[in-house]
Design a protein that fits this description.
The chain has 432 residues and is of the alpha/beta class. It folds into 2 domains: 233 residues, 3-Layer(aba) Sandwich (Rossmann fold); 182 residues, Glycogen Phosphorylase B (Rossmann fold), CATH 3.40.50.2000. The strands form 2 sheets. Strands 3-4-2-1-5-6-7-8 form an 8-stranded mixed beta sheet, sandwiched between helices. Helix 9 links the parallel strand 9 and strand 10.
């Protein structure tokens, strides 16, 4: 008799995988949840994704992909909230998921994304008597290292999720070391699996065709007026678009270089106005061009059309933008932090700046813009090295982690006890 398909419950509480990356609180994690879910379905799993309803007209349930469903859970007001405010509705979200799943809660495993989702995942895995995996994507203690204060209950919540989860998946060895050193994670419970990219979409072929499509779709970028320095991401301080504006006038050898800022939407008009004001103050207003967050279908063309992709983030646990740019044959200039220091080989596949100073980024960008041979060589090397990040390979590695958990659960064969329920509840009270 053929075994029924394995069933996975995915918690993505604070953001939907369908949200456009590069808009408010939507980025690499959204892409990760969406692409991994599709791959797992192809590999024989059924996937139910649960996210908090943040629009009143969002459908109750929709087919995310054949074999994968996305459920919108009522928890708090149906508006977009910062993740830290979503934390106040974790208990409501948890109960909402339980009600939706009632009668079909025979899940083999729960996989949570981000600490807020992890709190729900702990409780639901206990109720459903199945293992729980978590991936944080960003960590509060890391953000605090870069002068981005986080409320104490976030750090406490992360520690609780680390302590109570069956396995923690990190994107890089750097993240694994941080979880063990700063969060006292059990080393045997921290597995490294990189994020993935769609190599059928992000590749270096067809540059001229991509440039023509970008010139047509985004005439405001001024593609043929000078080499493009591409920034892709949310319009928030930690991502560093303002640093690039300050760097632009320092690129003396390429006075016609343009800065393309691709990110945000109408909710970011205030920040976009601030950046325009900064560009004007730096004397480069005509050289800084803005477009809203670009659809995933158009993003590869944008990478291929750019001369350089700049990633001046304060921290990236993986650095998806840099990896996608490299897969597309465009060398990145990035901050030497977190996953960026792991995925970029300095001097071979891109350049790393030791700190976030405009002059350091200007020098590295100028080096690439002034040397076509170097830029071409780095782009080719980058594309070749990114082959290891294919989504199929990543999904199979995730399934190896799942299988280890399922094997352990089968051997243990005992009821799963609640993990520090009082501590979790006190966190939720503090969040409220």
């Amino acid at each position: 008799m053929m075994r029924p398909r394995r069933r996975l419950a995915v918690m993505s509480t604070h953001t939907s995988p369908l949200a456009k990356a590069g808009t408010t609180k939507a980025g690499g994690m959204n892409v990760y949840v969406a692409e991994l879910s599709r791959q797992l379905v192809d590999l024989g799993w059924e996937v139910d994704i649960f996210t908090r309803r943040d629009h009143s007209d969002a459908p109750y349930v929709e087919e995310f992909a054949p074999g994968a469903r996305l459920f919108q859970v009522d928890a708090g007001p149906p508006v977009v909230l910062p993740p830290i405010e979503v934390a106040a509705h974790v208990s409501e979200f948890t109960e909402g998921v339980a009600r939706i799943a009632a009668g079909r809660d025979d899940y083999d495993l729960v996989h949570s994304h981000y600490w807020v989702a992890g709190l729900s995942g702990i409780e639901l895995s206990r109720r459903w008597q199945c293992p729980h995996a978590v991936m944080f994507h960003t960590l509060g203690a890391v953000k605090q290292m870069f002068q981005q204060p986080e409320p104490p209950f976030r750090l406490a919540g992360e520690r609780q999720v680390v302590a109570c989860s069956d396995v923690i998946i990190g994107a890089t060895s750097h993240e694994r070391a941080f979880l063990i050193g700063q969060y006292e994670a059990d080393a045997s419970r921290v597995r490294v699996v990189p994020c993935g990219i769609d190599l059928s979409r992000f590749h270096p072929s067809g540059v001229e065709e991509s440039r023509r499509r970008v010139a047509t779709a985004f005439p405001e970028l001024g593609l043929f007026q000078g080499p493009g320095i591409l920034f892709v991401g949310r319009l928030e301080e930690a991502k560093g678009a303002d640093l690039l504006i300050q760097a632009l006038p320092l690129i003396k050898a390429q006075p016609d270089a343009l800065l393309w800022i691709a990110g945000g939407d109408e909710r970011d008009n205030g920040e976009r106005a601030r950046l325009r004001g900064l560009a004007n103050a730096c004397g480069v207003a005509e050289r800084v061009r803005f477009v809203n967050a670009v659809d995933r279908e158009q993003l590869p063309d944008l990478y291929r059309a750019a001369a350089v992709c700049a990633v001046p983030s304060a921290y990236e646990s993986f650095g998806l933008v840099a990896v996608e740019a490299m897969a597309s044959g465009t060398p990145p200039v990035a901050t030497r932090v977190g996953g960026l220091a792991t995925t970029i080989t300095h001097g071979k596949t891109g350049l790393l700046a030791n700190d976030r100073r405009p002059e350091h980024f200007a020098s590295a960008i100028e080096r690439l813009l002034s040397d076509d041979t170097l830029r071409s060589r780095m782009g080719a090397a980058a594309a070749a090295e990114m082959a290891v990040f294919s989504w199929n390979s990543v999904a199979r590695s995730i399934l190896d982690v799942y299988q280890d958990l399922l094997n352990e659960a089968e051997v243990a064969g005992s009821q799963r006890d609640s993990c520090c329920p009082d501590s979790v509840e006190s966190l939720l009270v503090a969040a409220s």
